[in-house]
Amino acid sequence: MNSSVSLDQLHAHLAQWGLRSFSSDADYFAWQRATLSAEDLNRLTAQVERKRSGARQDEMAFYDLTAEPHILPVLYSQRYEYFMEIGSRVLSRIAPAGTVLDFGCGVGILTTFYARHSPETQFVGIDRSPRSIAVAQSKATELGLTNVRFECLDVDVEVLRGSYDRIIATHALVQAEQDPGIPSRDWTTFERARDESQQAAFEQRIGIDVRLDQLSEMLSPGGWMVIFEKTRQLARRVPFQRALARRGLQVIELPELIRYRLVEEVSDDGPFYVMQQGSAGPLAWDEEPEPDAGVPFNRTMLRSVPHDPQDPDIPLYENHWPSAQRVWESLADRLVQQEETRRESDGRQLHVELGSAEGLVYLYCANTFDQRQLIVVEPNRRAELASYYGEILSS
Ligand SMILES: C[S@@+](CC[C@H](N)C(=O)[O-])C[C@H]1O[C@@H](n2cnc3c(N)ncnc32)[C@H](O)[C@@H]1O
């Protein structure tokens, strides 16, 4: 964070927006019930559902609704920790910029925070939700900010102009949260083919093609782009990063995954990217799966979970993470007894295999959306794995 700005100031800023931090979901829902009517909640639920369709009008209607004065504090408080995590990180990357664009600024909760604490910098916040922009502008006036202005503009259909030393896009570029991304070449690898038409289709589907084209054009020489979107799964992360790289962007900091609490869930989100245009520096784009919690296969300490005599179903070894692939590859004397590879209705390739290795019996399951599962049991439990093998294939 900007050395002179403390997290307390970010808390105070959020409080000025009427946001509250909650110690429990129950507290949150009590406040929500006391503040919003059943009709408000029905409208919100219906609008969230419509937003899922990905249609532009539905998305805009959702953000317009959330900007209503009595809804805004309650709804945006769900993201209190998000604002703390992102607000602090972005602010510390602003100085010494002269000009900053906050794309998809929403109601301007973070834009006004950055502007307050970087008085020498000129900020522009843009968003296509007219109500959000009206709220942002009126809050900036209320806070006496003269170094920020807001514009209502849809980057998908209107041309953006200007040159900025920092371009920020946090939870703004990628609205298509359900898009699975692109599959790996086949079930044996996490690698994605370099297929231009598949990449272009992905960018178009989730709407980042035009957005990134426009934003990257406006970055001033030596300027930084700071991006934080929901692109954590490898199948989304790889094509998203390739989209950034295609616009000449290179990471200048190690991308960071950020964990924060929402109401009723914890989000492992991001990565948080800080990038510059130009030739590749010492940091390369990472297309590997994240390090995971899968334990190594150690022949002498086979049970990855403590053996529980009350639960005889526990296998000798189990790994449900991408690292299961390395373990499966390293199994000695692997002998496949049954296997099937097929294409599922959603296009993914699925492979299931039952075999023996190291005097034990294993089941390995892998698909082209990076899911892996390896189970190893004693030879006398082969029938159990055989039945699981059948279950996977029939499901
Ligand atoms: C989840 S809000 C994020 C707000 C803010 N960036 C934050 O971090 O809290 C996403 C915003 O992006 C805006 N947005 C999405 N697509 C846009 C586009 N093509 N042009 C302008 N704004 C857009 C939406 O209207 C919405 O207000």
From TrEMBL:
Pfam families, per database record: Methyltransf_31
Any GO molecular function: methyltransferase activity
CDD domains according to UniProt: AdoMet_MTases
Top-level taxon in the UniProt lineage: Bacteria
Residue span(s) of domain Methyltransferase: 97-179
InterPro entries in UniProt: Methyltranfer_dom, SAM-dependent_MTases_sf
Protein name according to UniProt: Methyltransferase domain-containing protein
Classification of source organism: Bacteria, Pseudomonadati, Nitrospirota, Nitrospiria, Nitrospirales
